[in-house]
């Protein structure tokens, strides 16, 4: 059975980590297959939103599969962690918005995978965390950089240095996730959020993501310049004209991505 499931329906790509027996942990094969899927999505004009989740009710992704022999030697560990970092960078850099539908435990690289997504929804009564310091390591696939940018330096250091596991409610209170739902509601809520995004002009959505993401990596003045450039790119689109016409006609806009 494939370790990654991938399907596209109505412009939504649904990607599922499919190693339920191993808590959807990431081994070398899974990393390679997920990298290929992300590469395909980045070049697929039929995909406007991406949802990433895991199989089963126990885990979204329990992290790297440390039982895998590839993670036993220091040199292999460094190599695979580098590959994980490159994979998560590629997910973050996708032009399409990404939603992590966190269906259970998200630890280590699994938590870092969720952090690489733009939006996060989590089921109630589960746990998230970065336990690497308990293993004599540090988060090496983006956790030390994305988490503080999301929730602030002090709170992020608390979680990383203590290796503390946070509950779903704490993750919501800290601003890690935007919503907590039941297992039965997770998929519906993820698709509902994807649908809200799909209602809007594709070029505008992608430009908004690009400007926010890149603006957060630079100073305010440079970010404002990026915003102006992104605004100019949307002003000249056919979708801008369609959106304006639909507003005055009080009808739903029929955006085409042009």
Distance between the termini: 39 Å
Mean pLDDT value: 92
Based on CA atoms alone, the radius of gyration comes out at 19 Å
Q: Strands across the major sheet, in which order?
A: 1-2-3-5-7-10
Helical amount: 40-55%
Task: Give a description of the structure.
- With 258 residues, the chain is an alpha/beta fold.
- It folds into 2 domains: 4-198, 2-enoyl-CoA Hydratase, Chain A, domain 1 (Alpha-Beta Complex); 202-249, Lyase 2-enoyl-coa Hydratase, Chain  A, domain 2 (Orthogonal Bundle), CATH 1.10.12.10.
- The chain has helices at residues 28-42, 74-92, 109-116, 143-151, 153-162, 168-174, 183-198, 202-215, 220-235, 238-249; strands spanning 4-9, 12-17, 49-54, 59-61, 98-102, 105-107, 119-123, 127-129, 165-167, 179-181.
- The strands form 2 sheets. Strands 1-2-3-5-7-10 form a 6-stranded mixed beta sheet, sandwiched between helices. It has a 4-stranded mixed beta sheet with strand order 4-6-8-9.
- Strand 2 (12-17), helix 1 (28-42) and strand 3 (49-54) form a beta-alpha-beta unit.
Question: Key terms for this structure?
Answer:
alpha/beta; 10 helices; 258 residues; 2-enoyl-CoA Hydratase, Chain A, domain 1; Lyase 2-enoyl-coa Hydratase, Chain  A, domain 2
């Amino acid at each position: 059975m494939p370790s990654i499931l991938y399907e596209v329906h109505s412009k939504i790509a649904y990607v599922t980590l499919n190693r339920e027996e191993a808590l959807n942990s990431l081994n070398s094969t899974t990393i390679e297959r997920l990298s290929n899927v992300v590469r395909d999505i980045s070049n697929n004009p039929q995909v406007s939103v991406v949802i990433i989740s895991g199989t089963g009710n126990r885990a979204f992704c329990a992290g790297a599969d440390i039982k895998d022999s590839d993670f036993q030697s220091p040199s292999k560990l460094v190599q695979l962690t580098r590959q994980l970092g490159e994979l998560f960078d590629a997910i973050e850099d996708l032009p399409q918005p990404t939603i992590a539908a966190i269906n259970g435990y998200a630890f280590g690289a699994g938590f870092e995978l969720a952090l690489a997504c733009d939006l996060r929804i989590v089921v109630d009564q589960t746990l998230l965390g970065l336990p690497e310091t308990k293993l004599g390591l540090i988060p090496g696939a983006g956790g030390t950089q994305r988490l503080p940018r999301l929730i602030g330096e002090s709170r992020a250091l608390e979680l990383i240095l203590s290796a503390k596991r946070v509950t779903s409610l704490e993750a919501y209170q800290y601003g890690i996730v935007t919503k907590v739902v039941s297992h039965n509601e997770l998929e519906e809520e993820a698709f509902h959020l994807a649908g809200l995004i799909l209602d809007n002009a594709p070029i505008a959505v992608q430009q908004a993501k690009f400007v926010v993401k890149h603006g957060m990596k630079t100073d305010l003045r440079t970010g404002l310049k990026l915003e102006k450039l992104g605004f100019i790119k949307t002003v000249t689109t056919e979708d801008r004209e369609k959106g304006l016409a639909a507003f005055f006609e009080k009808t739903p806009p029929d955006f085409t991505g042009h």
